[in-house]
Amino acid sequence: MDRTYHYYVEPGAVGEDPFISLEVEETQETKTHILRSILSPAKEYLDSSDGTANEAFRKCYINNVGENKTIFLRCAVPLHVQRLQESKDIQSLSALLDINDTTFNSGVLRAIQTLLFELSLNDTPVAFIDNCLNDVLKYLKRSEFGDLLQIYVDTIDTVLRCSATAVIQYCEYKEIEKESFTKIKKSCSSISKIWGSLRSGNTQAHQKLKGAMSLVKTMEKFKLGAPLKELFQRSADSFALSSHDTLLAEIARKGCIADQFVAAFGILRKMKQDPSNMCEKYSNFFQSVFDNRAGQRSLLGKDAELQQLTFLAVYGTAFIYKNFPQIPSTDLSSLINVCVPQLRNHRLDVPEEMTDLIFSLNKDLVQPLIDSLGLSEAGVQELAEVYIEKPLPDLKIYIDDKKRLPKLSNHYQWTLSRGRFFSNSVRVAILVPGISNTQVKDTKVSDENKRIENEFEILLKMQDGKTHANILKMFAFNPLGSRLHFHVIENFGMLLMDKVFQSRRTQDFFPEKWIISRLLEIISVVIYLHENNTIHRDLTLNAFAMKTLSNMSAEYEHAVLCNLQMAYYSDNEASAMAGHVADVHGENIATRWSAPESLWEGKFDVFTDTWMFGHLIHALFTHGCEPYTELYSETTDEIMTKVISCKLKPYKWPCIPLSYHQLAASCLDFDSQKRPSLQFIQRELQRIQKELKHDKNVQRKSYCTYTVPVISTSQMERAHQPERGIPDMVKKMKDYKGDKRDSYFKM
Fold this sequence. Notes:
Elements: E1 14-16, E2 19-21, E3 33-35, H1 43-46, H2 53-63, H3 67-86, H4 90-95, H5 102-118, H6 126-142, H7 148-173, H8 178-196, H9 204-219, H10 226-231, H11 242-254, H12 257-269, H13 275-296, H14 304-323, H15 329-346, H16 355-358, H17 363-373, H18 377-389, E4 395-397, E5 403-404, E6 413-421, E7 424-432, H19 447-462, E8 466-468, E9 474-478, E10 486-490, E11 494-495, H20 496-506, H21 512-531, E12 534-535, E13 544-550, E14 555-561, E15 568-569, H22 573-577, H23 596-601, H24 606-621, H25 636-646, H26 658-667, H27 678-694, H28 713-717, H29 728-733, H30 740-746
Antiparallel strand pairs: 1-8, 2-3, 3-9, 4-6, 5-6, 6-7, 7-10, 9-10, 11-13, 12-15, 13-14
């Protein structure tokens, strides 16, 4: 985080840091969650009550300056804007358009567009529409810099939906609200002129703007067809009478596109009253509209107005799917089938709201859309990234360095990317839906798939309202079962292994106090895991990274656990703390680092983690040598067979001070019950650290006067990654009867 507002945390500290739910109109089980600390620029706002939200927002906006003001606005989109959307406060929303930030304004406009579907006509009086259009006009007049085309396009749906609402209200209130309708007409006219001032072009965005201008110019005149006037003469009764079906059919058959747009919009605004009936009207209406248009014209793709009507059909379908789960999927499928030919004919870009359908988990809805749009797997991947960037403030996913894991049986596929979340480097894992409607038979889920899922589940349990200063953080996630499952996890530029080898290359070896600080940070993490019923099972140098924390005066370097993919959690303390735990991820354990009972019996507990910590002590003092490096000429198979059968112990290199070697040796006791507790090791390390800090009379011989061991060729060839799996010789030993040592010599 930016050091101007991120506070320093002591190593090993555990702090309160709950997840905050984002997104309105989702169940608690499917909402996007974001870590509260990531939104620290908005802390004052988060602490405010609902009743003072607007005041708190303005106060935070004024008090933050420079980059922090921008960061606060990114936070405010999923917080304040969605809070106003949830409370259906359209006036306060449109007033936010006076904030001079295009990205923030786009979020505000999206919220207004959504509300104009959700609010009843009674909840949007003419004065509200007048104010909203006036706020949009001021926003457009103020926009002099940036991508003007995109800024204008962002306002299209708000203006069209406000205009359609005004037309519906005009049918009933034209004599009562004359002054407001005059203002609305002037605002629409001014907006059209601003849109029209942009140089025309042939892009999809220019086509959108062209169609919107044409519709607004028609609607602002309030010169409606007779069937439309009669349909909305009393908005409370519209679509309720049998005669209205006749009027609707006439509008679909003979009405201008502006009339058809208003009629379709009116159906959506009445959807809450009778969802099943109104959904059927909506589907039949568009079927009739598109059938008649197909007969009238052959070049539908050039009709910019009809393109906007098609967008409304798609937006409405997404709105119905999201807000009315009681509508049968067959009804929604018929709606999609109505839209599909138009999507194919127009070659439209994928509308934003349409991603809700593509990621709906409903194959009946998804497959026709994917087929009609000609979406490839890469296209669906891009949609997924845009989809999760929308609710998460300031998340940027990098386009390079992506990795796709093997497909699951339902064609879903984990895609791993890197990115930036505010000033944090992150890795993003997205479970992207497949584009095939078939099942892959006999597909074996890869171990890497399992490890990605396992790390998410472990972090979800570990971060239950709190975080540890030396454990990587999950910043945000969409739960399993939500529309698009993903998680955003902290990423680090330098692993502990990299740091160690950087020191080795430069011959600038770490002092003892640096190493003991890292050991204390690591052991605090492992103890914390055990206290939370979690066994790590993969404690190597590669499992830790270096992180720099800052306060206003200094920087602090910390070791941070950066990998939990092999960790095991159990609600049953007995089975997690002791006993046999199957390697649920296959044979992926770090061979040389693992305890004998893990390799021989598949046993993992607090004692096997203690064994691995003993190897970590040696690895840090030798500056990166893996266990048993001294046996340069022997293979890992041969070495670990001797460890299991003959109780081979690692060599005490001269560069390892005796006190540390003794601690490591106690961790590497072959009788697991005789290994000391990690709490005891922690106290001993703290005692040694205290001596280093305070007893100047202690003359400790510097280990750096000794030559560190040479890294083995095998380790270098593996780029310092540990070998993994149960050695073949150990597997063969298990086939022999009798003592392990006897079995070894028989082999």
